[in-house]
Write a structure and sequence with these properties.
The protein has a single domain, classed as Calcium-transporting ATPase, transmembrane domain, CATH 1.20.1110.10. 55% of the residues lie in helices and 0% in strands. It is built from seven helices and no strands. It starts with 5 loop residues before the first helix and ends with a helix.
Length: 192
């Protein structure tokens, strides 16, 4: 089944991009900026190292999100073999799966069906990882030890606000229904 739906992706873009990006505009200036020579006219905008960093970061964020989705199904008793063949669930005659009498209900996103919990864990993993990445963006050249996230108090607000908004979507029932999400319990937060 799809890990995240269109509304989930729109939510991630809305909540994880705007506030942190705006706050990053208030980063303290790098004291060595004026001592560095300007970039050459023929130098690429995206260096090979920067491209490599984007690929690695995107790779581990994607793997963590999909991994959290798969892990949540595993925790609920759905073997990976069944998850890989979820489209054939109507042909399974082995009885219930993950506590659902009708096997396909384990993969449905409607009320009382199983996909909502896995998607919630995956979406929350993605939101939290994006906020952690934002905290690591205070400086492109210096480590977090030399320039910690609290060097930009606006960034702390720009990260806290999306987390609180996401919590509202999870725990305020009308919003959770619109987003087809379920409130996370302690075990699911441990996965995130």
């Amino acid at each position: 089944p799809e890990v995240l739906g269109p509304l989930h992706l729109l939510w991630v873009n809305l909540v994880t991009d705007g506030p942190p990006a705006t706050a990053l505009g208030f980063n303290p200036p790098d004291p060595s900026n004026m001592r560095r020579p300007p970039r050459g006219r023929s130098d690429p905008l995206v260096t090979p190292f920067t491209l490599f960093r984007y690929i690695v970061t995107g790779g581990y964020v994607g793997l963590a999100t999909v991994g959290a989705f798969i892990w949540e199904y595993h925790q609920r008793g759905v073997p990976i073999e069944k998850l890989a063949r979820w489209g054939e669930c109507s042909t399974w005659d082995e009885g219930s799966i993950a506590g659902f009498e009708v096997a396909c209900d384990a993969f449905g996103s409607g009320p009382g069906q199983g996909k909502a919990a896995a998607s919630t864990v995956a979406l929350t993993t993605l939101v939290v990882m994006e906020m952690l990445r934002a905290l690591c963006s205070v400086s492109e050249r210096e480590s977090l030890l030399r320039k910690p996230p609290w060097a930009n108090r606006f960034l702390l607000l720009g990260v806290t606000t999306p987390i609180l908004l996401h919590m509202a979507v999870l725990y305020y029932a009308p919003l959770a229904t619109v987003f087809k999400l379920t409130p996370l319990v302690r075990r699911e937060w441990m996965t995130v």
